[in-house]
# Entry
Amino acid sequence: MATSRRSTSVTASTTPIPTSTDGITAATSAPAAARVTAPIPARVARILVAPGAVVRRGAPLVVLEAMKMELTLFAPADGTVATVRHQVDDMVEEGTQLVTFVQAHSPALP
# Structure
């Protein structure tokens, strides 16, 4: 039986990272932490990256399987993988974080 393949791209949100200086919390412009989440309930079929891997925008990260279809999730931006939160054969719900990474800084313009 042939399986259908479906691909999706997940966007990252840029959120200030809170820091504390002398007990005062302030937002900084540190590299944005990005995350890739499951768009549907599914089984983790393959993990294509490991923590510490440097990825480019559009690089495949994780393959999910749902209803005999494969769904490949791609990196929304250039960056370095911080964590891979699940293992092959884990069942995940919609919205579950799968991969987190730190986005690379864009070079400053002269």
About this structure: The CA atoms of residues 6 and 71 lie 5 Å apart. The first strand starts at residue 4 and ends at 9. Residues 4-12+31-103 form a domain with the OB fold (Dihydrolipoamide Acetyltransferase, E2P) fold (CATH 2.40.50.100). The chain has a mean pLDDT of 77.
